[in-house]
Amino acid sequence: MNAFLAVVAILGVSASGPLMAGASAPALAIGFWRNALGTLSIAPFAAPRARTELAGLGRDGWRTTAFAGVMLAAHFGTWVTALKMTSVAAATAMVSMQVVFVVVVDRLRGERAPRSVIGGMSLAIVGVLVITGVDFSLSARALTGDLLALVGGLTAALYLIAGSQVRERVSTGSYTVACYGICAATLAVACLVAQVEMVDFSGRTWLAIVGVTICAQLLGHSVLNHLLAVMSPGLISLLLLLEVPGAALLAGIFLDQTPPVGVYVGLALILAGLVVVVLRRPPPEPVLAD
């Protein structure tokens, strides 16, 4: 049963990139609705416990939660934009570099990484250089998309690090409602400031937005959070890496995206490097974002 749930979860998160790339809506609006709908879906179940737990967070706890929510908003703003500018395969591979950014931030905080982790990071970075080199030869737009996806990986890493601190004090449901709510509010403000259309979409686009909420938020990351009770965080992190080839495959089938061979070479290098990083340095229990 757990193996079946893992397959469902990986298919769910893998559908995230292709669904958002195929939605004919601004990136900020997609990010807003995904988080707003996710919050509304979880809130009824988390509300009874969340009131007590969140009330006891204190100023520092709320400051960290707010930072995590803003970083999550920046993650969605940059990554969804990247999906509109470069291939789903490239964007998903780039954003998965969040694992590397977590190690870098930990190093800046004084934690040393084993040589094998440094080797895995170096291999992943070579993969990034391969993909960006290929995309640069195609267009400046694709290269910009790659760089935005990398920023999405960095902000996701900061979100994970901040979230791990808050989750030492509150449950997953309570933290998720607060963080997703802050993220949605931040993206709503960004949409208003940028004068982005938020509601006048086609029925197909609304189906894609609802679909990414169900697939990625509920069937994807929520199921993976459930599996943390019976699987190690390291194994869950390895399963999450399957989103990269999964998203590339789905984009090829449903969006007819066939990036150059060099992109797939870079994707393979990134995956190989990240597998080494995850195996040699299992991350903290993740607050799953994508």
Descriptive tags:
0% strand; mainly alpha; 81% helix; 290 residues; single chain; 13 helices
Secondary structure layout plus pairing:
Elements: H1 2-14, H2 16-22, H3 27-55, H4 58-85, H5 88-95, H6 98-108, H7 115-138, H8 140-166, H9 172-193, H10 203-227, H11 233-241, H12 243-254, H13 261-280
Helix pairs in contact: 1-10, 1-12, 2-10, 3-4, 3-9, 3-10, 4-5, 4-8, 4-9, 5-8, 5-12, 5-13, 6-8, 7-8, 7-13, 11-13
The SSE order reads HHHHHHHHHHHHH
Number of structural domains: 1
Structural class by secondary-structure content: mainly alpha
**Average pLDDT:** 91
How many angstroms does the end-to-end distance come to? 23 Å
Global morphology: globular
Q: Please state the CA-atom Rg, rounded to the nearest Å.
A: 18 Å
- Number of discrete helical segments: 13
Number of strands: 0
- Helicity, as a percent range: over 70%
Briefly say what this structure is:
This protein has 290 residues and is an all-alpha fold. It contains 13 helices and no strands. It has one domain.
General description of the model:
With 290 residues, the protein is an all-alpha fold. The chain has one domain. It contains 13 helices and no strands. The protein has helices spanning 2-14, 16-22, 27-55, 58-85, 88-95, 98-108, 115-138, 140-166, 172-193, 203-227, 233-241, 243-254, 261-280. Helix 4 packs antiparallel against helix 8 (140-166) and helix 6 (98-108) packs across helix 8. The two termini are 23 Å apart. The mean pLDDT is 91.
